[in-house]
Amino acid sequence: MTVRIDDVDRKILSELQRDASQSLDEIARKVGSSKTPVWNRIRKLRQGGVIGRQTVILDAESLGFEACFFVLIRTSEHDAVWQASFLEALQNRPEVQEAHRLAGDIDYILKVRVKNARAYDVFYQALISEVRVHNVTALLSMEEIKSTTMLPLED
Questions:
Q1: pTM for the whole structure
Q2: Is the pLDDT at 62 greater than 70, yes or no?
Q3: What is the pLDDT of residue 155?
Q4: pLDDT of 154
Q5: Of the candidates 107, 97, 96, which has an alpha carbon nearest to the alpha carbon of residue 134?
Q6: Rounded CA gap, 16 and 154, in Å?
Q7: Rounded to an integer, what distance in angstroms lies between the CA atom of residue 53 and that of residue 27?
Q8: How far apart are CA 16 and CA 121, in angstroms?
Q9: What's the Rg (C-alpha) of the chain?
Q10: Which listed CATH number (3.30.930.20, 3.30.70.920, 1.25.40.10, 2.40.50.140) goes with 61-140?
Q11: What are phi and psi of 77, to 5 degrees?
């Protein structure tokens, strides 16, 4: 189902990205509409797959997850069986916040959030025991400068 998105939809989506806990009344006021049309638009956007699941964003450091590693993986294996095994290993590891398959010299990049370097080593040892990889490079993030889930919807 293709959903047509107009300027009002973009304003609604921007507000939801900024703070999805806002009431319909607040969103309607901010986008210059009333509650029922805003609700109908949100429902249409959900049904069309534009809006996915809703969640909250937790502060990792306040919960003790002080280390963020970007893990660069090279593999010499690209067959379907290996890829399925790799995907399963990543899905079973809650430390992996993001995983991307790349073009270029590096095959995959993972964003891994753990409590400390020792916890990263436990993650690393478990991963390489589950799937064969050619080369792994871990880069420790010293400071998060920007992190957002928001898309640039408005011009």
A1: 0.88
A2: yes
A3: 60
A4: 74
A5: 107
A6: 13
A7: 18
A8: 37
A9: 20
A10: 3.30.70.920
A11: -110, 135
